[in-house]
Amino acid sequence: MASFVNSTSSEKSVITLPSIPELNNQQAISLAFLAIFSIYSLKIVKNSLFSVKAPYVGHRSFFEPAWLIGLRFVRGSEPMINEGYQKAASSTCYIAETSRILTVLQYKDGMFKVRRNDADILVVSNKYVDELRNMPDRQISATKAHVANLLGRYSTTRILLESDLHTRVLQTKLTPNIAVVMPAMKDELDFALNTEVPDCKGEWVTVQINEILLRIVARVSARVFLGPDACRNEEWLAASIHYTENIFLTVMLLRRFPSPIHPFIAPLLPSFWAIRSNLSTARRIVGPMVRERVAAAAAAKQEDGGYQKPNDLLQWMMDAANENDGQPHKLAHRQLLLSLASIHTTTMAATHALYDLCAHPEYFDPLREEILGVLRVDGGWEKTSLNKLQNLDSFMKESQRLNPPSLLAFNRIVQTPITLSDGTVLPKGTHLSMPSAAILHDRALQQTNDNNNADDSSQYQDPSKTFDPLRYARLRAASADNANKFRFAQTDRDNLHFGHGKYACPGRFFAAAEIKMILAHLLVRYEFRYPDGDKHGRPRNLSADENLYPDPSARLLMREREGLEEDIKRLVGI
Ligand code: HEM
Predict the structure, then answer these.
(1) Contact 53, 105 (CB under 8 A)
(2) 3-state secondary structure 56-99
(3) What is the mean pLDDT of residues 314-342?
(4) N or C: which end of the chain has fewer CB within 10 A?
């Protein structure tokens, strides 16, 4: 029996509450499970009552439970998304056959849903992209979708919701200054190649190129993000690389469990604690840097001395930050978030490109010729040299078309109900995305683009399957209007692998420059091939939910190119 003293009354009275029967352990556990199950069921009922009516894809039978479909989505997302895309596409045409009327009715807005274990995602047609792309975050939020995808509470990414500091700085400072930071990138790249690439002079050496590229990208990025000292700090490099891997592992494991039990499962995962350890390493390294810079600037101001501010992303963020964002531990945290957004994405694109090159070795020499041709004309690496590598750019874009980082892009969470131009209402809380990979494999759509833009469309037979690495270079050359379209980093209604619109990836131009610079140096200095020649072809991509990635364990052979002429060495700067 529990009793409380009611002290507000003038005469103290004792209120007696009915007692809670004592529970044994087994009963308590059963009760907890019942509560969790009820919350979970309520969530499912609420979702199905108040969400957009669109069919789910991936059902094997009417009776298959939702969690099983979610489980199959982990490794089998591609056929499910393709099924939805094809049905949605066919439903937009008038179909007379009665047997398909049901499909037409169901998929009439070109929408379908996929079940991921942690969320139902409404996949909408890219016909809506123009009306959605510039809506502000308070209407449909890209940031909330990123944080939801990363299970923010467990991955330490909820700081993204505090402000858009790093995104703003990437857009307003890094992108316009890519040419300015290029010499520093080149310097770090030379150091990285000499440090990370094994000695392969005169002999073929087996390498896991993904691992080498990961460290090269981490080094070059850190040079731009943090400056020349910290970028060679092994502890920083390890934290910036492993933070992403630990988050990915934590998220993928937690997604297998219903969200109400995440708070109990998360602390049991070693990766959950590793994320926090990476964060404290970042704070230990970056925090003092911020304080030193602030002190140096203040001292110089007092003495009227000329303090030269460093020209790196950390400094740009310090200059643009408000009081909250400018705290040293928050800036350190954002530096890690930048690593999360940039290092593995860039590495994956470079790895895919090399895997594709080894599968199509006839493109090695033409690309080398392009690189050396540009360097000869420019007399070495000039500010505009990277932009002139149009064939390499095209190769990268075609490689991304067939090996994208994700099958779904343009993730958004609806914040206030939205009525689309055709009357479709998206209720608050809807998690939507677009089938970015399927769109670029759509033969009909691709041929329309090619026919509109290229002189010789006969070259683009079955674009969904054909690896045609110069496809985008030809399209760019076909007309003056196209010169800037079809660039690797250019987004549009159909090219959504970097998102599109106001919240498209703010680091994509930097990524394009970094990948090009790394590939150009690798191609000029080394040759690559698969250990068994072309016998096994390109390593198959791996997938986890909607994410795709190159097999990191795949091996290549690499060898230093012999007999490089002195003028080439001078031009490349080796
Ligand atoms: C090939 C490499 C890359 C790919 C494929 C990629 C892709 C993407 C995509 C799809 C988004 C979401 C866009 C949307 O919401 O519509 C995104 C967001 C973002 N990306 Fe990239 N990205 C790459 C490289 C980079 C690099 C190098 C940086 C930094 C220099 C960067 C920084 C960001 C940031 C800050 C965001 C916003 C997410 C946030 O709120 O933190 N990305 N990226």
Answers:
(1) no
(2) ECCCCCCCCCHHHHHHHHHHHHHHHHHHHHHHHHHHCCCCCCHH
(3) 98
(4) N
User: Which protein residue has the closest C-alpha to ligand 1 atom 24?
Assistant: 342
Give the residue carrying structure tokens 């874009």. 397
What percent of the chain shows pLDDT beyond 90? 70
Strands 119-123 and 431-434: parallel
| 96 pLDDT tier (thresholds 50, 70, 90) | very low
> Mean pLDDT across the stretch 154-171?
97
Cα distance between residue 382 and residue 384, in whole Å: 5
How confident is the model over 394-452, as pLDDT tens digits? 999 999 999 999 999 999 999 999 999 989 999 999 999 999 999 998 876 664 555 54
- What is the pLDDT, as a whole number, of residue 22? 66
Closest among 555, 563, 475, 488 to 519, alpha carbons compared? 488
* Ligand 1 midpoint to CA 372 (Å): 30
The residue with tokens 């150091």 is 191
Residue 71 and residue 117 in contact, taking contact as beta carbons nearer than 8 Å: yes
Rounded to the nearest angstrom, the distance between the alpha carbon of 88 and the centre of ligand 1 is 28
Nearest to 332 by CA among 369, 261, 282, 398: 282
Testing ligand 1's pocket by substitution, the residue of 158, 345, 407, 502 carrying the most ligand atoms inside 8 A of its CB is 345
Residue identifier of the C-alpha nearest atom 39 of ligand 1:
143
Q: How far apart are CA 414 and CA 57, in angstroms?
A: 22
Which CATH number is 162-406+497-572 given?
1.10.630.10
Instruction: For residue 167, give the nearest of 346, 317, 283 by alpha carbon.
Output: 317
DSSP string, 207-235: E-HHHHHHHHHHHHHHHHHH-TTGGG-HH
DSSP 380-399: S--TTTGGG-HHHHHHHHHH
Domain boundaries, given as residue ranges, for the chain: 1-46, 51-141+415-433, 162-406+497-572
The Cα 511–Cα 276 span in angstroms is: 27
Give the pLDDT of residue 284: 98
Q: Residue 132 contacts by C-beta under 8 Å, 6 or more apart in sequence? A: 140, 410, 412, 418, 501
**Contact (CB, 8 A) for 388 and 374:** yes
Find residue 14's DSSP bridge partners: 5
**How many angstroms separate the Cα of 190 from the Cα of each of 275, 485, 518?**
30, 31, 10
Residue located via tokens 């929408």: 111
Positive or negative: CA dihedral 334, 339, 342, 344: negative
pLDDT at 107 over 70: no
Average pLDDT, the chain: 87
Which ligand 1 atom is at minimum distance from the Cα of 166?
35
